[in-house]
Amino acid sequence: MALMETAASMIFTDYSSSSSSTARLLHFTSSRVQKFPNTISHFRRSNTLKFGISNPKFPRTIITYCSSASPSAVQVTEEASATIIDGKRVAKDIREEVAVEISRMKDKIGIVPGLAVILVGDRKDSATYVRNKKKACDSVGINSYEVRLAEDSTEEEVVNHISKFNDDPSVHGILVQLPLPRHMDEEKILDAVCIEKDVDGFHPENMGRLAMRGREPSFVPCTPKGCIELLHRYDIPIKGKRAVVIGRSNIVGTPAAFLLQREDATVTVVHSRTENAEEITREADIIISAVGQPNMVRGSWVKPGAVIIDVGINPVEDPDCTRGYRLVGDICYEEARKVASAITPVPGGVGPMTIAMLLSNTLLSAKRIHNFS
Ligand SMILES: NC(=O)C1=CN([C@@H]2O[C@H](COP(=O)(O)OP(=O)(O)OC[C@H]3O[C@@H](n4cnc5c(N)ncnc54)[C@H](OP(=O)(O)O)[C@@H]3O)[C@@H](O)[C@H]2O)C=CC1
Ligand SMILES: Nc1nc(=O)c2c([nH]1)NC[C@@H]1CN(c3ccc(C(=O)N[C@@H](CCC(=O)O)C(=O)O)cc3)C=[N+]21
């Protein structure tokens, strides 16, 4: 997916592999010497491995047997390596589930869900996202409707299109691609989407309901919903765990924190004014990072055994890639995967889940509007 605008200033430089890096990498190598035929006679760990979250389904230890000076001894090295949470695969499963439900609905009541997408301006990355959403809709049988408006359109024009879609019975979900051009009032535009079709979950009433106990939002925002879905599908417990969300945007960080709290995690939110972000993050059993800073979270920020969900999508220069850049997350993946028990990659982690959740929310909306279960 070509994510970038041509503006080179948007591409970060990746310093994560620089030798001048001051980041501390936790040691996760343990060695033990076995005297055969007996069991372990000596066991030494360079760090106490206590997994906040462990999942027997996903073995996380690589054991290499090295020959030793003594023929009766074998050196066993354990290098921790996290389970890779495969968002691409889970998203595919979800698309298949959604497709089955859509054909069932079509067969039973003759209704096909519809998603309307409004794109304002000519950002290349936004155009690519919109194209991918359309492709995803086609793949599951959702009708998609697209409106493209010029960069210099007025707020009123955008709101008029939203109003038409609000009244159109063949449209069950409305998405206004963000970011909007600077001259537009994002709040005013998002407020215009009727709450029954707010499949992005960005309407303030949806967010308010998400924040309140005993209330249910019509829709949960797609990216944070995708993060929680990944935890569920990998059987990763959330209840009672310490979670740290890095970032507090309205579209990712804040709803992710509300969702984790609804799942009975104990949640801390870290943001740009947080002091001791590293220490706070190191307390977490679950880290969700949505910052937009490439490789910001180093291995030393991660508690051994923590689960990491990396939302960040950051292009960094890479002359070896045909497009001149590659995508990295907020988490320094190579370091963190040696410390964590499970981690999402970028790309192939949360990104595909966002689109899968959009399809799922659109199906949910159509079912609700037509009272189909
Ligand atoms: N995978 C996906 O589907 C999606 C990925 N993304 C990606 O996720 C990332 C975040 O997106 P979004 O939430 O929209 O971004 P925003 O820029 O809206 O928010 C970033 C948040 O990070 C915080 N922050 C910035 N710098 C630091 C720092 N040094 N330490 C701690 N916190 C910091 C900001 O704090 P403050 O509030 O104090 O300014 C802010 O709350 C981006 O890389 C984006 O591309 C976004 C949406 C979907
Ligand atoms: N109203 C609105 N809703 C959004 O949900 C919304 C938005 N505006 N504006 C932009 C952000 C960003 N976003 C992404 C969606 C999919 C991937 C995605 O599929 N990423 C692939 C990237 C693949 C590649 O480019 O190589 C991956 O991570 O594997 C990423 C980011 C949704 N957003």
From TrEMBL:
Keyword Chaperone: no
One Pfam family of this chain: THF_DHG_CYH_C
Pathway info: One-carbon metabolism; tetrahydrofolate interconversion
GO biological-process terms attached to the record: photorespiration; tetrahydrofolate interconversion
Record's keyword terms, sorted: Hydrolase, Multifunctional enzyme, NADP, One-carbon metabolism, Oxidoreductase, Photorespiration
Known catalytic reactions: (6R)-5,10-methylene-5,6,7,8-tetrahydrofolate + NADP(+) = (6R)-5,10-methenyltetrahydrofolate + NADPH; (6R)-5,10-methenyltetrahydrofolate + H2O = (6R)-10-formyltetrahydrofolate + H(+)
CDD domains: NAD_bind_m-THF_DH_Cyclohyd
UniProt xrefs under PANTHER family: C-1-TETRAHYDROFOLATE SYNTHASE, CYTOPLASMIC, C-1-TETRAHYDROFOLATE SYNTHASE, CYTOPLASMIC-RELATED
Protein name (Swiss-Prot/TrEMBL): Methenyltetrahydrofolate cyclohydrolase
Source organism of this protein record: Lactuca sativa
